[in-house]
Every structure is written in C-alpha cells, then in structure tokens.
Amino acid sequence: MSVEKYEVAVVGGGPAGSAAAYTLAAAGRSVCLIDKSEFPREKLCGGLITLRSKKTFEAIFGTPWDSNIFNSSREIYFFADGKELASQRADEDTQLFFTMRLDFDAYLLELARRAGATLKLGHAISKLEIESGTIALQSGEEIAFNFLIGADGVNSFVAKTLFGASFNPSKIGFGLEVEVPRDLLPQQSERVEIDFGAARWGYGWVFPKQRSFTIGVGGIHRLNLDLRDRLDRYLRHKGLASKDFKVKGQYIPFGDFRKAPGAKNVLLCGDAAGTADPITGEGIAYAMQSGAAAGLAIRNARSDIDGDVLSLYFQDYKSIASSLRQANFWRWFIFPTILQRPFAWAFSDASTLQQGYLKILAGTLDYNALYGLFTTQVRKAIKKLAATVFRKIKELFNRQTNI
Predict the structure, then answer these.
(1) Which tens digits make up the pLDDT trace of 231-275?
(2) Residue 151's closest CA among 319, 28, 248, 21?
(3) Residue 214, domain member (yes or no)
(4) Residue 34 backbone dihedrals phi, psi, to 5 degrees
(5) I need a surface site. Which of 2, 76, 86, 387 has the fewest CB within 10 A?
C-alpha cells in the first residue's frame, strides 16, 4: 500500500486537534487528522464552555460559534459537601455555556475539514515511528509526516511513545459522571452547582445541558479510590442513584501540565500536554489555545524540519503554563482537608472571591489577580471573625448579668 505524505499529522480529533488542523489547513499546509473513533462520539467531559472558551474559539476559527449546540446559565451555586455556601448571578460578561462533547467535537472537526484538513476517523494507530516520521494505521494505511501534533487526550499514544508514559499516576485526576434527563430534575432549572467537598482534592458539578444535566465528581485519583461511593453520595442529594444511569469514567489532567510539551518535531497540546485547570476545571479553552499555538509554530517554522519549532510553540504555551502554575499554587488554599472548613466558612461570605472565580472562568481575570482579591477578602474575614467573637462575648455577658 502506498504511503500518504503530509507536512503535519495531527493525532486526536478533540478541540486541541481540530484547532491545530484548522490553523494549519487554513494557512494552506497539508495536514491529516487521525482519530481512532468515528464522530460524533461520546466523551466524558462536564462540557463547560466559558467565555474564555468562546473568545478563544472565535479568535481561532474566525467565526461566531453555532449557538444551537450550547446552553447558557447565569445562576451559579457553591456548595461544600452538600451544604450551600453561596450563590452568584453572573452577568453577560461572566455567564457560562454548556455543550455535549458529542456535538461540539463533531462541529469543530467539520470546521477543520472545510478548511482543507484530511480526516481519517475510526482509524487506530498500530505503530508510530517518530524518527522516520511514519504512522501505521490498523487499516494498513501508512502516513508520512514532517511534523507531528499529539492531541490525543490524557492517555496520549504520542506522549507515551515520546516519553514512555502519558501521565504521572501519582498526580493524575479521575472523574465519574452521569447524564440525567431533565424530566427527572424538574426543579433544577438552569442552575449550575459546584461542590468543593464532593471529592478529595477535587469537586462535584451539576451542569445544565439542552436535554440533560451532567452530574459528576472528580479529584486526584490516588486520593479518591472510593470515587464511585462519592458519586453515589453526591447523587443522593438529588434523590438519584448511579445504578440507574450509565456511569462514564476517565482520567483527567489536574494541573500536572508538561513543562516541555514535546521534543524536536513533535508537539503535545490539550490533555496530552496536561493543560487542564485544577480549580475551575477549565480545559476546552486551553485545548483550543494550545492546539492553535502548535499549528502556528509549525506554520511559522523556517523549514520543513525545523529544530526550533518547539521553542516557537513554547512562546505561546508558556502563558498557559503560567496560569496553571498559579492554579496549582492557589488550590493549596482550597483542597487540603485541614483547610476545607475554614475555606467554606470564609467563602460563604466571600463575594469578592466568588466574583473573582467567575471572572477567571470568563477570562477577564487571571490568577495573578487573586493576590489582591485574597487580601481584600482576608480583611473582610477578619472583620467577620471579630464581629462573631464580639457577639459571643456580648451574649455571654448578657447571660451572666441576667443570672
């Protein structure tokens, strides 16, 4: 069988792979996108699409997105182990969007195809030879490439070939979720729920979709070996049981991003590079951003085989790495067991931090802004604590004087 030759092979048909393929194809480069699945295909993902994601999509694909595949919400409720802490109503600049990855990924792939990318879907890789620049598919086809982009998710075949492992098992996250038909939760409306106590070093979520609610829990895998039980407890708050639904599970990058996202002529992006925020759960925006950055790096390379392509990619990738580094720092103030009760106590009255959380999701603030927000909130917390102590002393004094 003859070898098909392309300048770039992209492995993975999710948001990162589609963004990379579109960016290259739109620039007139020959690109082949390969994925083992046929599309549309199911994918474990909360489906949260933030305004950051919307802006990123429009910047990369140069078009408004198809609003028919999205649902939006402005009602966000925060919980800690089932107890409501606070709620916020998002404005137009911080509202959240939700989609089924079944629809969203197929939509992005179609945009890449229209731009000129060749799609090979339902084709698993049997062998990858990075040195020779060839990919053998189980169908018997062979693809030759000058550059390779690994956008094949957390269990990345490309990353495993390149580094020997696709992720660090001691740091990886894991999530479980179910799709609940809307008629089973008639009172839920369009409200979004985030529960910081549903999993250790993680959270639970209820996200409204057009036809269902996605309900799930996720956290650091090694700390949540009882995650199925945690999902059951979380569902019981809604009068539901996991046995009544199809439970989907998947590893999730939880801030363990790759410091070197590739080597030589191979670039990793999206979940293959670990670009998922461990606090907000943001992943789709970073996937598209990193995928487009990988495509631009190759487009701007000085020759077909350019040893500087990784450094070109890193110029854009480092902004994602910086944000994830900040998130990894701040999660130490949220997730440790010893801090969860103080965090819940403070966050319940922390309108400044709640609004900051939404603005970080929207992309109007980055994590550097949390230093100022945190300082402001600490001052409020001290005043709240002082008022509580003063009230207790006054109550004690009144009881003593009435004896």
Answers:
(1) 999 999 999 999 999 999 999 998 899 999 999 899 999 999 999
(2) 21
(3) no
(4) -120, 135
(5) 2
Give the alpha-carbon dihedral of 299, 303, 307, 313, to 10 degrees.
-10
Q: Which domain-ending residue is among 302, 329, 356?
A: 329
Cβ contact 164:195 at 8 Å: no
Domain limit, last residue, from 329, 353, 368 = 329
The CA-atom distances, in angstroms, between 63 and each of 19, 58, 67, 99, 170 are 13, 5, 12, 18, 40
Please check whether residue 319 lies inside any domain of the structure: yes
Taking the C-alpha atoms of residue 374 and residue 393, their distance in angstroms, rounded to an integer, is 28
164 and 275 both lie in a single domain: yes
Structure token pair of residue 179: 């799709």
Strands (E), 151-226: 173-181, 192-195, 202-208, 212-220
Flag whether pLDDT at 217 surpasses 60.
Answer: yes
**Where are the extended beta strands (E) located within 96-211?**
96-98, 118-121, 125-129, 134-137, 142-150, 173-181, 192-195, 202-208
Residue type, 190: E
